Amino acid sequence: MSDIVLEARDLVKHFPLTRGILFKRQIGAVRAVDGINLQLRRGETLGVVGESGCGKSTLARMLVGLETPTSGDLFVQGRNMAKVGGAERRRGRRNIQLVMQDPYTSLNPRMTVGDIVGEPFVVHPEVLPRPRRRARVQELLDLVGLNPDHINRYPHQFSGGQRQRIGIARALALNPEIILCDEPVSALDVSIQAQVINLLEKLQDELGLSYIFIAHDLSVVRHIADRVAVMYLGKIAEIGTEDQIYENPTHPYTQALLSAVPVPDPKLRGLRDQIVLAGDVPSPANPPSGCRFRTRCWKAQDICGQQEPTLDARPGSAHPSACHFAEVRDVVHARE
Amino acid sequence: GGGSDDSDDAGGQSGGELRVYASEPAFLLPSNGNDEPSIYVIRQLYRGLVKYNAETGEAENDLAESITSDDKKLWTIKLKDGYTFDNGEPVDAESFIRSWNYAAYGPNAQNNGYFMKRIAGIKDVTAEDPDGDGPKTAPEPKAKTLSGLKKVDDLTFTVELSSPFTGFPTTIGYSGFFPMAQACVDDADTCNETPIGNGPYKIEGAWERGVQINLTRSDSWNGEPGKPDKINYRIFADVGSGYSAFQAGELDVMYTLPPERFKDAKASYGDRLFEQPGDSFNYVGMPLYNENFKDKRVRQAFSLAIDRQSIVDAVFDGRYSPATGFIAPTFQGAREGVCTYCKKDVEKAKALLAEAGGWKGGKLVLWANAGAGHDAWLQAVGDQIKAALGIDYELKVNLQFPEYLETADNRKFTGPFRLGWGPDYPFLETYLTPVYGTGSDSNNSTFSNPEFDSLMKQGDSAETIDEAITFYQKGEDILAEELPVIPMFWRKEAALYSENVDNFVWNQVSGADYGATSLK
Amino acid sequence: MGRYVIRRLLQFIPTVLGTMFLLHYMTSLAIQFSGNPVRALFGDRTPSPALLAAVTERLGYADPCLDQKGNPCFGLFVDRVQNIFFHFDFGINMRQQEVTEMVADRLPFTLKLLVIAIIFEAVVGIAAGVWAGLRGGSFADNLVKISTVFVISVPIFVLGVLVREFVGVKFGNILRDQEWIPDVVASGFFSPGFKPDYPTASLLIPGMVLGAVALATTARLTRTSIMENIRADFVRTARAKGLANKRVIGVHTLRNSLIPVITYLGVDIGSAMAGAVVTETIFNVPGIGRMVTEAARTGEAAVVIGVVTMLVLVILIVNLLVDLLYAVLDPRIRYE
Amino acid sequence: MSAMSTDVNVKLDALPGLDSDALPLEVKDLQVEFRTRNGIARAVNGVSFNLRAGETRAILGESGCGKSVTAQAIMGILDSPPGFVTGGEIRYRGVDLLKLPEAQRRRVRANRIAMIFQDALSALNPVFTVGFQLGELFRKHRGMSRSDSKARAVELLDLVKIPAAKQRVNEYPHQFSGGMRQRVMIAMALALDPEVLIADEPTTALDVTVQAQIMALLAELQRERNMGLLLITHDMGVVADVADQISVMYAGRVIEEAPVRDIYESPAHPYTKGLLESIPRLDLKGQELSAIKGLPPLLTDIPKGCAFNPRCRYAQDACRQDPVPPLYQVAPVRSAACHFWKEVKADV
Amino acid sequence: MSDATSGGTAVGGTPVSGGGQAPGSKGGKERNASLWADARRQLVRDRVFMLALLYIFVVGSMAAFPKLWTSQDPRACTTDLSRVPPSWDHPFGFDRLGCDYYSHAIFGARPSMVIAIMATGAIVILGGLMGLLAGYYGGWVDALISRLMDIFFSLPFLLGAIVFLTVIKKQNEWTIAAVLFLLSWPTIARIIRGSVISSKDLDYVQAARAVGAGNGRLMFRHILPNAIAPMLVYATIVLGAFVAAEATLTFLGIGLQPPTQSWGIMISAHQNYFLEDPWLLLFPCGLLVGTVLSFILMGDALRDALDPKLR
Ligand SMILES: Nc1ncnc2c1ncn2[C@@H]1O[C@H](COP(=O)(O)OP(=O)(O)OP(=O)(O)O)[C@@H](O)[C@H]1O
Ligand SMILES: Nc1ncnc2c1ncn2[C@@H]1O[C@H](COP(=O)(O)OP(=O)(O)OP(=O)(O)O)[C@@H](O)[C@H]1O
Ligand SMILES: [Mg+2]
Ligand SMILES: [Mg+2]
């Protein structure tokens, strides 16, 4: 299994809710990520979708080491990041880099592009000797389609799409194998979005990168991802290849999600069998017992409240789905 | 505006409310109040054995029938009959003895205990602290009362002094010698807030701290009654704001003026500005304990470098007059021009300094206490010395008064220091022994001259006042030559009164006399 | 909310003790280095050591630690704290008055002055700020800006003396000559200082002078706040609701804009207390500021510590109240 | 409800030239500019469209092309300064709103033309309860009492399907979830039963599942009341779902206008075409997306001629020169501002 | 701002928010990037700012090179010339001790400016550091620093100054600056703390952290430079307030000591002559007010220039 570059086992992140006047005691927790298992293969793109607040960003932050997991293990190329220390851990960390959502806020406005893209070398001086850094930064800028002569410009002198390219260049600086993209295109206009997605795909081809691609735009994920994980309230509801998830979703949540996506084709208007979910996502501080989706699920039965469904392949579904009644349902899809 | 329009009820006798400027008194207890604001109130509430003639300043009997002595050491005092305190207690021999004993007794810590220092037995009622400032507290004094005070009968008592003192009868008009009722001594704190007086006025309500004190005519007083029905002391923290209130017609009398507004007041109020030569002495003391000031020619040179009149004009708008002696010009026995070195003469100053071998002390340090407005004239003094003798100076004017006094007590001044002296009683001796006598409490320049000391002794025990004066004047001559302090100015008294005031009375010794001032 | 209050009250403890200790140490040092403050009572006339010792003992400056330079006098401090908090005994001043009594006598004047100052600065400052804020960059804006800033850049003692002389004396005298003007106005309001006959009217002008200091800040704060909020989406909504301009400004903009201003006003009470020192001196107001300044100068440690402790408590409680008011004004802030 | 609306119409009859047969909204050659420190930004350079009762018109375009400014100009709530309407007409049933005095114009707002904003959290005043903000409309426009208006607020919350409306009416905006806030906004817009509703990106900040709820609700209410809906968005999916007519904007101009099906089938302007092509499609998976190259123009510095010419693959010299291409009639009910619309339309 | 500035003289106030509670605010999505460049461009065009700057420049040169402005010795005084009104040779006349008032004013600029600049520098550096540490580390570091801030903050300014200065007993530029610093650092620390708290979770800080940057780098390279704008604005205001505070301290008798020259001394020595010889008050007050005004207006202009929302 050497081609598994990243593996998460039972990854959990709880944010404690505290109360107390002098001494804080914990009275509960926001279960932002509540036991997630993932594997990422070399050269693959894993899409992660889900509603706002379901824990996508928290998962991403744990994977890049911005947040320490409450429990669970994270393996980067077979190394357990919690167990190894010092230099090896730094090296492990170097291997996963992050591209953030908002290109306007994720670049320090007071640093030049050269400084931003070159910062990883300052932090990890062993990677590249100082004299060669500038050239490397220019190379990187060229790679992401920016003019290398703009190395001394400031972020505000660039457009949103160009800024996102700067973010990507920074992520590429340390030659990582894995890049985590947390909604890299949601802040961009449709026309610009396509440019960035093209760039990401191009880089993957050229450099053999593996991506974890978080987004809430399902069609973008479909376009770029090889496999897709659907998250709901800190857990994975369903995971499978892009085809399996989009063509044969078996979890009611996935089905609802997909049916809610508007399709840019007026001819299909009124033809789609849309499931409009009632109500809001429950609070992650106080998730429902058993199956977390049962409060909004039209299929819910008693067992859903008592027993939490495991993420397994069931008779009705060929791929892992965390529903007791997983089955394929026909949905009219876009562009068929 | 305001004023007392309701004042003309009893013809010339007048009445109404006299609104006067005041500062916050420290204490209203005769034995404890020793500051000007306190005394201004106490004088209307209490009366003593003698009072001072408004015009001449001479002591006249007030409550005393007679004050006599053969040897100027044992004094017999007879009281007039028929006077009482506001609470009905009689004003008798006992009330004076009680008051003076209370003041003198060390543990009572009364400010005016100081004035009892001439009475025999004073040492026994104050105990010496065994180790000065050290941790041990002073033991109980040996005696509770002064052995020198003896009651003869209800209205007669005798006072024995430790040594003869001709001027004794003039001293006891000071408010520290006023009588106190038994009730007052028993509960001094209450009596301080709501005094039990024996004078023409009594307090109305209580002392409103920081705001005002109201006095009204006392029924128990059977001497010459006060003119106004009421006296309202408005308390001001800052004389400038008091002057504003006066300008706005809120006050009838201001017994003092902000120096910088003197010209303005003169211009605006003309004849209602009362001016009089004053008796408070400002001087620049010489730290004789410092090597550089030991030569009298240096001191003379400094004194000669100063143009007093020009400082007075520049800094005080003429509200001070240059000093040419050590005794207030208004006092009996004062002479003009005693101090020959108190006139500016740069050439002579230079010559004297050269004779003395020049100045070796580096930068001259001039001392004054902070926040009392002394820095300006001292700075002018420094400028003049610098101009005349080429000695640069620096000012050390940031010490608050406690620390300044402590510095004086500890002989830590490194250069000339400003201090002032006011008379305790209207007798010229008050300017001499306490300030220049060897080992005297207030002898901050540590002057010591046997000849001077003996002249003082002779003066104290002289048969008559006139004879005494000649001895004292000889003493002053010595000071004028030795210059242990450089005389600077006498403060001119300046008071303002409003259009409502009919007859303003100023007492030579005790200043504005509100009880005698009548309203229109 | 209750919890929040308790927590804040508990936080007072270190603050109050810290402030007390700071003052205690400073005043002790002052005595250790400058000598016995009691000495000043005797003026030019040097007291006998016995007398001095007796008075020193009686006034409470006899602790031997006060003779040891640099000694923090912990014992004395503990005594003081005990006396203050367990016996409500704040000590006595040099004239043997109880500090509590002195404060009780004088605090009403200062409080009145402060209330007038705060009301003045709030009403005028906010009005000016709103006026300027609505016309950002215009003549009105600049006028308010320059005039308020001008007021603060004149030292308050100059301002105070000028107001006293020109308004209280010169202008007041003209009014006092006018028969038809009621006395409250001519001799009360336009009195050149505090006047016992008109205890409130004569404090109005001093209060305004005191308030003038912070007026500028209030106005500027309001201006900025209004300018920020006037562009807020919810103000746009209010416009879109067809509300009259008066209501859009007066209800929908003002309340939101006042939040930082209120906070500032609360904090400002502390500084106004400080400013009161000068104002009280110039206008002869028998308040606490003047008293405590004198005490600080003459080294009356008990008074300084006692009064400032009370002041600090008042300031802290006012701040707490302002915080709570803040929660009333802004429901988003809920103190758990 | 109907009784109420007549009651309003009585008041609004006072509008000069009100013609109840005219269209609820006609915008003609609207021009808006912002006078900023960095120069004049011409945010809207001649926008025209009509809106019929019961019709949904979508305004489409990328960020910064002037969609919101157009909406604000129609409502009369531009930030002014720096924003100024410098030309054009905005007619409500024949009355030119731009010429109305402010007092009358104010009465048109919310009563006849209402608006929903993109970010409901910031569009609701955080310091007042939802009930207060809803009730205010009835109190100020209808002179209702406090309690009556509160009752109406509860009704409205019910209408937009907020559970437990009676309790929630006393809560503050921050206590609601994103979807519910947007419903409150809708309730507020519908309160006075307007004839035209402008919705400026009502669902952009929301999740797809919630977006579906909101769009369904809006469609239902629009149908019920026969309102004209002006929907501003850049989501091609939503447009395809609900719009009848589409106006595509680019750099402050409408560059194409057509019924919804026509546009998706055969765009006549290269920009519209590029927009549609850049949406990821299943059949193109694994291929590069066809992106529009280059960047949107700065409004302070709009290119000469057709504003889209630097990014356009059809551009020729004519496009780079003034005048700006006019709106060519492409079909009876559609037009496009491209000299080469025929080529574009034919090129599939 | 109960703070320094409350010196009774001027309140350089700032919104003291309890530390970054700004729910619902949408963060700086605006291009706050161009801040400095834009700000500079705008400031150069701002006439008020340039005038203020020019004024400060003039006063600054007086402080730095008084000899450039006058050849008179301010300490050559004769009481005979006391309060002689201005003339051609002596444009400001003479003060009450007969010293040339113009040269006094020129030489008086230095202490005023030096005190203000030293105190401001100290609060910016040390107060800023405290705020940075408190905001960045939170937890007990924050608790400790916050309590310390509370203590100094709750001391009424003038009172604190009186207590400190009477203890120190040496009133020179250094000690006065030190006391001003001591009593005013908490305000700036609070401002910085607030902005650090709100910026430490910004995306670009997280991005740098994700790359592996350490605490020092995050604090000084990423957080501080972007939190510094509000502090800078406050600093200019406080600078003016300090110039005025020096005068107030002198008025209370705890400021600089004559025969040093300072504007505060000039004002408080002549405050009672405003009726007879108003120019004695007018000149130093004019200079002082001008300086304070200039600093505050500069701060204002800077605030507006740095505020993307007002653009
Ligand atoms: N530092 C934190 N402390 C407490 N709760 C947190 C923290 N960070 C995130 N959460 C909570 O954890 C949950 C998951 O948040 P997360 O940011 O991972 O969601 P998300 O899926 O990325 O949502 P979005 O699509 O809005 O970005 C949310 O309920 C959030 O409120
Ligand atoms: N208050 C304002 N001051 C200056 N310029 C403004 C202002 N409001 C809008 N603009 C400018 O007007 C142009 C159009 O803005 P508008 O808000 O209409 O865009 P939009 O099409 O709604 O974009 P989005 O999809 O991002 O909402 C933008 O370039 C914007 O910078
Ligand atoms: Mg996220
Ligand atoms: Mg918009």
From TrEMBL, chain A:
Ribonucleoprotein is among the record's keywords: no
Gene3D superfamilies, alphabetized: P-loop containing nucleotide triphosphate hydrolases (3.40.50.300)
Biological processes annotated in GO: peptide transport; transmembrane transport
Domain ABC transporter residues, every copy: 6-258
Protein's UniProt keywords contain tRNA-binding: no
One Pfam family recorded for the sequence: ABC_tran
Keywords from the UniProt entry: ATP-binding, Nucleotide-binding, Transport
InterPro entries, alphabetized: AAA+_ATPase (IPR003593), ABC_transp_ATP-bind (IPR050319), ABC_transporter-like_ATP-bd (IPR003439), ABC_transporter-like_CS (IPR017871), Oligopep_ABC_C (IPR013563), P-loop_NTPase (IPR027417)
One GO molecular-function entry: ATP binding
Family: Belongs to the ABC transporter superfamily.
UniProt name for this protein: ABC transporter ATP-binding protein
Organism in which the protein naturally occurs: Salinispora arenicola
TrEMBL record, chain C:
UniProt keyword terms in alphabetical order: Cell membrane, Membrane, Transmembrane, Transmembrane helix, Transport
GO BP annotation list: transmembrane transport
PROSITE patterns, per the entry: ABC_TM1
GO annotations of cellular component type: plasma membrane
InterPro entries for the chain: MetI-like (IPR000515), MetI-like_sf (IPR035906)
Entry superkingdom: Bacteria
Cell compartment(s), UniProt: Cell membrane
TM helices/strands, residue ranges: 12-33, 109-131, 143-163, 201-221, 261-283, 303-329
Topological relation to the membrane, as annotated: Multi-pass membrane protein
Domain ABC transmembrane type-1 positions: 107-326
Similarity section: Belongs to the binding-protein-dependent transport system permease family.
Annotated protein name in UniProt: Dipeptide-transport integral membrane protein ABC transporter DppB
From TrEMBL, chain D:
Family that this chain belongs to: Belongs to the ABC transporter superfamily.
Family matches, as InterPro entries: AAA+_ATPase, ABC_Ni/Peptide_Import, ABC_transporter-like_ATP-bd, ABC_transporter-like_CS, Oligopep_ABC_C, P-loop_NTPase
Membrane topology annotation: Peripheral membrane protein
Compartment(s): Cell membrane
SUPFAM superfamilies: P-loop containing nucleoside triphosphate hydrolases
Pfam families: ABC_tran, oligo_HPY
ABC transporter domain residues: 25-276
UniProt keyword terms in alphabetical order: ATP-binding, Cell membrane, Membrane, Nucleotide-binding, Transport
GO molecular function, one term: ATP binding
Identification of the protein by name: ABC transporter ATP-binding protein
CDD domains (alphabetical): ABC_NikE_OppD_transporters
Presence of the UniProt keyword RNA-binding in the record: no
Organism the protein comes from: Salinispora arenicola
Automatic annotation (TrEMBL), chain E:
Residue spans crossing the bilayer: 48-65, 113-136, 148-168, 174-192, 227-254, 279-302
Membrane topology recorded in Swiss-Prot or TrEMBL: Multi-pass membrane protein
Pfam families, per database record: BPD_transp_1 (PF00528)
Annotated segments matching region Disordered: 1-31
Biased composition (Gly residues): 9-26
Subcellular localization(s) per the UniProt record: Cell membrane
InterPro entries linked to this entry: BP-dependent_transpt_permease (IPR050366), MetI-like (IPR000515), MetI-like_sf (IPR035906)
Keywords: Cell membrane, Membrane, Transmembrane, Transmembrane helix, Transport
A GO term from the CC aspect: plasma membrane
Keyword match Transmembrane: yes
GO biological process, one term: transmembrane transport
Domain ABC transmembrane type-1: 109-299
Superkingdom of origin: Bacteria
UniProt name for this protein: Peptide ABC transporter permease
